[in-house]
Amino acid sequence: MVKTIEYLNGVVRMIDQTRLPNETVFIDSTTPEEVGECIRSMVIRGAPAIGVAAALGASLAADRIEADDFDSFYAQLEDDCAALSKTRPTAVNLAWALERMKRFAQDHRDLSVAELKTALRGEACRILEEDVAINRAMGMNGQALLSQGQQVLTHCNAGALATAGYGTALGVIRAAIESGKNISVFANETRPFLQGARLTAWELKEDNIPVTLITDNMCGHFMKEKRIDAVVVGADRIAANGDVANKIGTYMVAVLAQKHGIPFYVAAPVSTLDLSLPDGSHIPIEERSVEEVVTLNKTRIAPEGVNAAHPAFDVTPNELVSAIITEKGVARPPYTESLKQLAGS
C-alpha cells in the first residue's frame, strides 16, 4: 500500500493525489507554506490526512523559528499554525491537529527551544503513526456491520489516501475482507473532483478488491435493483447531534439509502467529532473554484460565461445515519448521548 504521507529528515513527502491514477508522483515540502499549499490544492486531501499534514507542517514551522525563549518561540508557532488552519475550513481534523501541537508546546515550555523543536517533531510523527492504528481499530469495529457477500457503496475517497494509511470507510471494507468476508464495492465517481473514479477505484484495484465504478447519478438505480446492501462513507466533521459533513453528494446518497431501506454508515475517528457545534447548520462549508465544475482535466465542458457553484461538502442529517463507526466503538442514535460517551472514553 502506497504511503500517503511521511516525514523524512526535515522533509514532508506526500503522494500527489491530483496526478492519480495516471501518474504516481511524490511532492517534497520543506516549509509550512509548501505543506499548506499542498493541502489547499488537494495534493493531499481527506480529513485525517490533512490533519497529519498540518501537524507535520507545524513541526517544519517550529524547526525554522529563531528564538531564545519560549514566549517568542510560541508566538511565531501560533502565527504559522493560524496560516495552516486557513487552508481548508470544513475538516475539523486540521484544526484538531494544530491545537494538539500547540498544546504540546505549552505543556513542554520548560524545555529549551532546541529540545522543544525535537519534541514537537516527535509529536507530529506520533499523530501520523496513531492515525494508522486508529483506522485499523475503526475497521475492526465497523466490519461487524457488514455481512458475507454484501455489495457496499461508498462516496468520495475515504481510504488509505485520505488518511496516513488503511482508511476510514475503506478501512471498514478492508477489515471485513481480512476477516474472511467476500465484499465487493460500488464506487461513486464523485464529481466534480472525481475522487471516487481517480482514487477509490485505484486503491481498490491495487488491493485486488472487486470494485464497480458508477457515476453519481446511478446509485439510486442500483439501490432500486437491490444491487447495494450497505453504504459506508467517511466524514470531515460531525456535530454533537450526529449531523455529518462529507463530500458533496453524500446527502443525496443518504436520502436514497433511507428510501430503499439500506443502512447508511459513517466511519470517522473521534478527532472528527466537533461536539462544540450543536448541529450541522453550524459547520462551515468550503466553496471551491467553479473551474473544477466547468472543466474536466483542464478541458472546458461548459459554455464560456455559464455560472457554476461548487460547495465542496454537504451535511447529512443525523436521522439518515444508521451508525457512526469510530476507533472507540460504534455510536447509534441518539447521537447526542452516544457521541459524547465515545469522545469521553
Q: What is the number of domains?
A: 2
The radius of gyration computed from the alpha-carbon positions, rounded to a whole number of angstroms, is 20 Å
For the terminal residues, how far apart are their CA atoms?
Answer: 31 Å
Largest sheet: 7 strands, mixed
CATH T-level fold name of the largest domain: Rossmann fold
Structural class: alpha/beta
Q: Going across the biggest sheet, name each strand in turn.
A: 6-5-4-7-10-15-16
- Runs in which pLDDT lies below 50 for 5 or more consecutive residues are none
Indicate the proportion of strand residues: 15-25%
Order of helices and strands: EEEHHHHHEHEHEHEEEHEEHEEEEEH
* Total helical elements: 11
Measured as a percent range, the helix fraction is 40-55%
Instruction: Let me know the average pLDDT.
Output: 96
CATH architecture of the largest domain: 3-Layer(aba) Sandwich
What coarse outline follows from CA principal-axis ratios?
Answer: globular
Secondary structure: number of strands: 16
User: Can you identify the CATH class of the largest domain?
Assistant: Alpha Beta
- Oligomer category: single chain
* CATH level-4 homologous superfamily of the largest domain: Translation initiation factor eif-2b, domain 2
